[in-house]
Amino acid sequence: MIRGAILLAIATIVGYLYAQYQVSSGILSRFEKNSMLTMHSIKGFVNVYIVKDPVSKQNILIDAGNSGDEELIANYLKEHQIEKLDAVHLTHGHGDHAGTVSNITQRFPDISVGCHKEEHSFLKSGQLFTPKPTIRLIKWLMPYILKYNIVKPPKAFDCGIIYSNASETHHGIKLYHTPGHSNGSVSFELPNGECIIGDLMGGGFLFANSPSWPLFYQDYEQIRQSVQFLLKETNCQVFYVGHGKPFDRPSLLQWLEENPTNPADL
To answer: What does the alpha-carbon distance between residue 21 and residue 237 come to, in Å, rounded to a whole number?
Structure first.
């Protein structure tokens, strides 16, 4: 009976994730119509974004997917005739967001790689850092997630650009330290006023375009504070996430009002 419950729980989560990833690019295209930038969303285990600055013409990769996504990214670059990546900027250092960086730096030797100082030490050593699950079901499944390497540690690499806790601008993109999902999580404000926030929040799935708690967290209260900080410091109207569909500013404001409870207590 326990085995059946485990399989059912796993099937439920896989179905949830599959629904998020398969519909994400369609919603992204709807938002892109009014975008000042060319943005590509690569579907996989995690959303990977390529932002092309219309002024510098540089191609900036935001997050780099999971180990094993190298071919997916390479095929996407070839299909869209993107011959060069100029920089990789990481929202955080978890294995599903930094997994292909080592491969990308080999393919593009002159590429710049940026990460926050809180993430740099374990990225440099190739360690897998796992935060706490936001719900008990995920906590129950964690031994199986780790046992079967669903999220793999990235191959060790060095970040040439180390973010501090202050707001900074790199390659025309402004970044903010927004901890909560991890201590070194950052969010990126694009020149057109849209934001890429990684796993600070989870995105919508199926027919929902609303934010949600991420499946994992380091400090849930910091997540809330970081969301409030972004809303105060930026005028971003669209928020792109690491998992699931993007959502708009009113949806995020509504989420803050409707979620005063620590998800770990649910």
So the answer is: 22
Question: What are the pLDDT digits (tens) for 27-83?
Answer: 343 344 444 456 777 866 789 999 987 778 899 999 999 888 898 899 999 998 999
| Strand order from edge to edge, sheet including 168-170 | 168-170, 173-177, 186-189, 195-196, 238-240, 247-248
Give the start-to-end residue ranges of the domains of the chain. 2-265
Tokens, residue 26: 């369609």
Topology of domain 2-265 in CATH is Metallo-beta-lactamase; Chain A (3.60.15)
Give the residues across from 186 on adjacent strands: 177
3-state secondary structure 124-170: HHCCCCCCEECCHHHHHHHHHHHHCCCCCCCCCCCCCEEECCCCEEE
| Contact status, residue 37 vs residue 51, Cβ threshold 8 Å | yes
- CA separation for the pair 48, 26 (Å, rounded): 14
